[in-house]
User: What shape does this take?
Amino acid sequence: MALPLWGCGGAQGDDTEPAATPVRVVAALPASKPQSIGGSGTVAYERQSTLSFRVGGVLSRLTVDVGSRVGTGQPLAQIAGIDLREQLASRNAELARTTRTLERLEALSETGSVASAAVQDQRDTVEQARAAVAAARYDQRSTTLASPFSGVVLERLSQVGETVSAGQAILRVADQDSPLIVRVPLPAQDADRIAMGAPAEVRFEGRPPLSGRVARSQPLVSGATGTRTVEVQLPPHAAAQSGAIAAVRFLPTGTPAQSALTAVPAEAFVPRSGDTGGVFTIAAGRRAKFLPARLVRFEADNAIVAGLSPGARVVTAGAGYLKDGDPVLVASGN
Assistant: This one.
């Protein structure tokens, strides 16, 4: 008569092999081509400036219009600076007065009638007056707006007779010798996938596409939109105008060769640390075998990994409960 096994000593149970873990398996597939990233942006010259006055006043002269060619240092606009001229005259008069006082004190100091400290105080007063004159002259020169480079006027934002404030936009000018770029705002996670120098396709409505290159990516994320701006440089002599809207498509780069990537169900990837981890396959004797693989990205319900050959049978359901070498029971219907 057979005795029940539970009557035996517990020491034998420690060596008992664990029960097989039920699992499901699928075949790993070659990864699909990575999806391109798209967005729309605005064309601008790389060197483009919005000009304004340092001081406020009434706009009295505006010598250029949209499309005008301008040279470096060419006067473009002027504001009536009556108050500034009066201010300069007043400060010049103050400088002359303090200088005369200094000369008088220096003469008295030679006879001992005035202490040397009083003379030094007056010298400091003269220096302050000179600085005030220099500041007034700078303000006076600031009533004329000059072009910072040779180029063309893109936009005229004010009219003669308007009262303009300091910093108010008057003209927008561009250096036409600088390259044309397209500034494309993208979600930060998409911008992170685009490498410097990567190709980009730029399309304007009703025209053939242009081939551009990623020139730079702004490192800061906009707090208002959560986007980062990627700049695409257009080819030389591209038929595009500043301010035009373009549709841009990027192909992410900087990942392993596409032929080396494999797609597995997301639940098949077992993470370890960071993007490292792997998958379980079925070895001889229906044992789980862990194969290291590197996670490249998640795509829909799949994990795209590097280091795994297409066609490998990987464990999906049950992978999270396995250890290397565990016995497995493959469910029917796989």
Notes: Helices lie at 82-110, 116-141, 188-191.
